[in-house]
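question for whoever is on the cluster today: can someone run the full assembly for these? two chains, 354 residues total. i dont have access anymore since they changed the login thing
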Amino acid sequence: LELRTHRRLPLETIRALLQRMEADPTYRFLVVEQLLHEDAFAPDFHPLSRTEAAAQAGLTEAQVRELEALGLVLPCPKTGRFDEEAVHLLRVLAGLLEMGFTPEDLHFYARWAQEVARHERALFADLCQDGSDEAEKVARYQRFRELAGPLLRLLHLNYLRRTLYDLLGASGQGTEG
Amino acid sequence: LELRTHRRLPLETIRALLQRMEADPTYRFLVVEQLLHEDAFAPDFHPLSRTEAAAQAGLTEAQVRELEALGLVLPCPKTGRFDEEAVHLLRVLAGLLEMGFTPEDLHFYARWAQEVARHERALFADLCQDGSDEAEKVARYQRFRELAGPLLRLLHLNYLRRTLYDLLGASGQGTEG
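^ ran it for u. tokens below:
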């Protein structure tokens, strides 16, 4: 059994982006986010079994099962295998467990991500009710995802920084104006 | 009044990253996320007034005030000015308004980001109770933020993809194994 131990990053894509960024300084930050959040995952990644995914993330199979049960990682519902994104998620979770958090501590992330997604589904359904065709819906979804991701991330970062400020003192404030 | 109309992206930093990525294929995706989410904001960015920030994002001042009231953008609590991150957030919000969403539609993002941050604060306070010094706390916070950001983002993306699947048909499924 050959484990894939290296993550391949799309250097050519990043190079092309760099060129365009140099040519056009207004080229949007959004594009960078999009590039790294979507295309940084190798298209030819072969989904892993639970055993393989656990090994790649430095977790035990029992830990992975527990994270799955809490909705903190979502293997493919049909095959039960872990795509590259799921493996990355396991690595992030492994880092948090290593810091001293328990899977139960982290459960709320899954609940909230699910709630946000439900709310977004309702919003998005309204937006799609004008009888637009499939291609148009997919294009809107792509655009929505491009925007909703950074929105949630930036808001989270801002609120987190403010909420933790008193725990950390002025040194944690960083660049906050 | 001179508006800053171009966003400066740290090309040198990205070039250095590229070199390291080529030299070391295991170089972590986390580092890329970190780089782009933190350092992509220019350190010499001069915080903008509401008028300037609105103009940069293509919004009216009234719209910016409404977004502030809903907690969807957080200017500096001391100066009321908008740092680069806040301006970027306004651009993302402008994109969503342009798609047809209302500020009220988006209000839940602020509520949830705030709830997540509160929960994280409680977790983090527990983790810091062992009398570790300030520098150690800040280092843990940095590490926590490095991990919590991608965790929330990936979970959100996963749940969003699954939740919207039936609205979009197979073409929206993309790379989901």
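summary bc i know u wont read the tokens: Chain B touches chain A through 102 residues (CB under 8 Å). Chain B is about 65% helix and 0% strand.
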